[in-house]
Amino acid sequence: MNTIVAAKSHLSSGSILYTHSDKGLVVFSDAILPKHVDEIADVIHQQSLLAFSIILVNSVAMLERYVPNFPEVAADLIELSEDVLLVEFEQTHMIAHSSCGTLKPNVFVLVPEGFLAQLVQTFRRPILATFLAVNEIQVSSSNSNASIPEKWIACDCAIPYHLNTQSKRICFCADGTFILK
Residue 135 pLDDT more than 70? Predict the structure, then answer.
């Protein structure tokens, strides 16, 4: 599967997508559906994987819908940044968290171009991208070590290098203060 339409169709029907990257596996799901976040959190927990999640959005307007009391300075910093900026908020609105507390996504990335930007635009909802640090992974119906559920669907898309933990990061606190990292 390598088309935007196919990927959107799978996400819309409740599927979880994955692709390989140079650092492991990247899993994509609807950021609003708790069952997706729980399923990904279960795999992380059962296999003791290191993971990092970000929420992909395609505009500041989309970001504003999912952050209560969105600070105007956040929009300014995102628009002025020459590089991709990871923007973390203490509070989010309508973004699913895992019921076990393992996965609480609150870091957003505005994806400016490419396959992922087109996918977010077509899907019209934020997409959760979870980076799993694994060397070898197999598709399996069991929960064996280094396996992913066979119902997850492989997606052939390149992950831009800038979508990782090395990007610049800004954290916004509930009281309106922010920290550059």
Answer: no
